[in-house]
């Protein structure tokens, strides 16, 4: 037990994947049990996409796809809305959005250095918020389109609720990402930088 806690506290892959395994079920449970009571103007933020955004930036594309698949499957079974929207949109949106906002792999960084490409890196916190906002935007667009195709007349309320969902999810992502990201990564020691010191010859 002591060894497990020691490895959990130390930054590294073990710590990251323990948090990943905890984030998936906790995110779903909080979404279905807590978020319905935290409504502003009748709309609650989408905590699942907050989780997916954090996973996308911290872990990468593969884990983002797995999170999207699990959440889409659970939402389709437990809280069905428009048929098959959750099952399709969560994984597909998570995967394609991750291509834009996930951290670059080591191989990609090495290729950029070899090709001498100078790319402007967006801060991870900003990318996390943008990832959540884009995911929710895609979800709301598809949801509104399905509602319209089923013969329901769209009103201002539909668009207002969609915009509220996007804004509230973005704000929640900003707060939770700033809190959870350091917990996942841990406190990293700054890498030592070798500085060239002038050579001084003493006179004897």
Could you give a short description of this structure?
The chain is mostly helical.
Describe the protein.
The chain has helices at residues 2-9, 13-33, 47-58, 61-78, 85-101, 106-114, 124-149, 156-185. By secondary structure, the chain is an all-alpha fold. It has one domain: Arp2/3 complex 21 kDa subunit ARPC3 (Orthogonal Bundle). The longest helix has 30 residues, at 156-185. Mean pLDDT is 81; it is low at 190-194.
Shape: globular
Domain count: 1
Number of helices: 8
Give the CATH architecture: Orthogonal Bundle
**Residue share in helix:** 55-70%
Structural class category? mainly alpha
Largest sheet: none
> Tell me, what is the CATH class?
Mainly Alpha
Number of strands: 0
Report the sheet-strand fraction.
under 5%
Q: Uncertain segments of ≥5 residues (pLDDT<50)?
A: 190-194
Order of secondary-structure elements: HHHHHHHH
Provide the residue-averaged pLDDT: 81
CATH structural fold name = Arp2/3 complex 21 kDa subunit ARPC3
Rounded to the nearest angstrom, the distance between the terminal CA atoms is 60 Å
Question: What is the rounded Rg?
Answer: 21 Å
Protein topology:
Blueprint: H1 2-9, H2 13-33, H3 47-58, H4 61-78, H5 85-101, H6 106-114, H7 124-149, H8 156-185
Helix pairs in contact: 2-3, 3-4, 3-5, 3-7, 3-8, 4-5, 5-7, 7-8
List keywords for this structure.
204 residues, mainly alpha, Arp2/3 complex 21 kDa subunit ARPC3
């Amino acid at each position: 037990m002591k060894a497990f806690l020691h490895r959990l506290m130390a930054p590294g892959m073990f710590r990251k994947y323990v948090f990943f395994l905890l984030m998936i079920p906790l995110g779903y449970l909080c979404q279905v049990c807590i978020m319905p009571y935290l409504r502003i103007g009748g709309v609650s933020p989408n905590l699942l996409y907050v989780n997916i955004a954090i996973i996308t930036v911290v872990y990468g594309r593969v884990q983002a796809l797995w999170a999207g698949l699990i959440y889409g499957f659970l939402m389709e079974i437990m809280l069905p809305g428009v048929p098959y929207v959750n099952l399709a949109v969560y994984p597909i949106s998570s995967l394609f959005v991750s291509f834009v906002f996930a951290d670059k792999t080591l191989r990609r960084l090495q290729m950029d250095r070899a090709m001498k490409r100078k790319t402007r890196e967006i801060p991870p916190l900003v990318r996390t918020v943008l990832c959540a906002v884009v995911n929710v935007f895609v979800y709301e667009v598809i949801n509104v389109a399905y509602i319209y195709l089923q013969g329901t007349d769209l009103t201002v309320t539909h668009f207002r609720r969609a915009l509220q969902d996007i804004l509230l999810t973005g704000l929640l992502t900003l707060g939770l990402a700033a809190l959870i990201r350091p917990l996942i990564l841990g406190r990293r020691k700054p890498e030592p930088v070798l500085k060239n010191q002038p050579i001084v010859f003493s006179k004897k």
